[in-house]
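Quick one: structure for this chain?
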Amino acid sequence: MNFNRLAVALSVFSLASCAFYSRAPHDELAVASMATGGREVEHDTESYSRIDDNPFLAARESPLSTFSIDVDTAAYSNVRRFVENGTKPPRDAVRIEELINYFPYAYAPPADGRPFAVNAETFSCPWAPSHRLVRLGIKGREVSMAQRPRANLVFLIDVSGSMSAQNKLGLLKPALRMLAENLRADDTVALAVYAGSSGLALPPTRGDERSKIFAAIDALEAGGSTNGAAGIELAYETAKAGFVEGGINRVILATDGDFNVGVSSEGELTRLIEEKAKTGVFLTVLGFGMGNYKDSTLEKLADTGNGNYGYIDTLSEARKVLVEQAAGTLLTIAKDVKLQVEFNPAKVSAYRLIGYENRVLRSQDFNDDEKDAGDLGAGHTVTALYEVVPVGVGVELPSVDALKYVKPAPMRGESEELCTVKLRYKEPAGSTSQLLSFPITDSGKSIAQANADARFQAAVAELGLLLRGSPHKGSASWAEVIELASASAGNDKYRAELVELAKRASKL
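Got it. Here's what it folds into:
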């Protein structure tokens, strides 16, 4: 063997290896993606906001529970991505309310001219049989795509190097085509892009000029750093210039959230979006990819931008969000929707809100019309579950020393009401909220007597408790999740998928 030649070969190999590993992180992601057929390798740079499960609260000391609605569904498809890849999702990625709200439910639509209807049901809790579940369901007014007002849409596309993978820009382009195929002739669409700098890849264009729109989408290529703030400024300026009074005015941001140039901190970006939301232009955030995915940033951008947030991991998910549920994704029918539940301490010893941890509000925020809250799209359903401990059932609560100067008020009357639910909402262009209020009594139903939607929602909540390793999971089990979900899935393809997801998760 010629040892000189071997030494040269090893030297060349070493230099090549150094060149590969010294690439910028975004280039490394692209190379790794190419080497795995478009599937990115896993990196530890994904970020999620910390979530601590809501605790049980004593109804006598804390009778009010206040929170903002959440119509986002990103957590479910993101959790699905982890499970299907054979990995347990980070506990902070599991937002239980988004798992529940991913699925449509057969709630009765409004019949009184209001933008939504509210219904409630009570039944036994499967993972704590002595406890009760209170289900609050909201159903938004249905508006078909043919009935919806004219749309002024601006796609804001991240074309930085981190978007080069097949499950990012490669998935985004056909997803945008799906939405563009359903535009009307009187709609307008623009395509703003950003990387190191920003620009208009497509000026405002009529919705029926599909060949022009498709050509602009097909021409998108990834490369460079990520100056998201510059793109946001351009997108909102473009949307404001074409503003349609009484119409749909929306920026649709598609990105992995990895902002790294210019205004890049989460706080600065959310303040920027919060300011832009005052223009009357709403925001939809679509997340893509894995490895460097910034869920925490994208969720906050959607929250402050009067918008909704979805995670696109497959073409099927893109079709669900941008075609099947397009009216709800694009058309807001009520904004700043807040709920406040007052529990009756004569009936309720303690309660806890399941999920919505990052949507909890102070009691006084309910009546404050300056306080931002969630927005409801056409046809959307929103569900909230409370786990309630009836009076007489033991529960461990943090102890507090008796007050010296204030004595507890005596119980008033013997009302049979379990709680009273109040809602506040504004019209999409309004600034003053309207109030709804109604009482709830306990029907005494078992979980077996609850309707199929309620049983399925309990199964999804129990799945979330197990995935999170929640301290409140009680006797929750994978077998019970699978049994409950299977028995209430019917012929719904999305519910059938959840059953298979639970089976896979049980083996992780």
